[in-house]
Amino acid sequence: MRIVKSFILCAIIAVLIPTAAAAQDKRIHFNVGGGPTFLGGDVGNVFSSGWGPAVGVTFDMNPRIGFQFEYAYRAFAAENYVDTFGGTYSANHHTHQLDFNFTANLTKPGSAVRVFALAGPGAYQRNVNITEYLGSGIICDPWLYLCGTYPVTSILGSRGGWDFGFNVGAGVGFQIGDSAEFTIEQRFHYVVGPEIQAPPGFVNPLGTTTGSSNGYYYPLTFGFRF
Fold this sequence. Notes:
about 230 residues, Porin, 8-stranded antiparallel beta barrel, disordered N terminus
């Protein structure tokens, strides 16, 4: 029995020992993962931290530099959020992210632990859906895509669109077997949203008649790369 256990242990260790040659020869990599996404700026004052999966493919131009295309989905929620006019909302916020990144391996090819960085532009489809509202109908919040006086029925519902942005981040990959990795990465996404303008004649008691829906997102992703 002890011999069998020793054999199994040796087999596991052999699987986990990285094979540098196989990893270096591979030029196309797929990644899949997910994890929490933290929010910054005004969007963080409205919605709580969210979550979502991500999948992508990387084409290595050489052992150091690559190009990555990635899709990610993020979901956030707001429960009983109270705005500056005393209105109370429940809402959700979803993003579909398409990023086009350059990647850089910062450690030597074949290392058991790979440190990497990446950055690039992206397109972000962001949608806000207000599911419940209790208030006067006066609202001027760019993160709800509204500024003015509205019937309650027009406040409830979905609004949003595609916006341009960019992301930058870094991570670490731990080799598993010949050509797989377990990865941990942190990124910063900045999305340039539209300016929300109040309609002519709207009088805001607080003095503001416009606002920016720019967004700051900080996903922490745990995943695998093959």
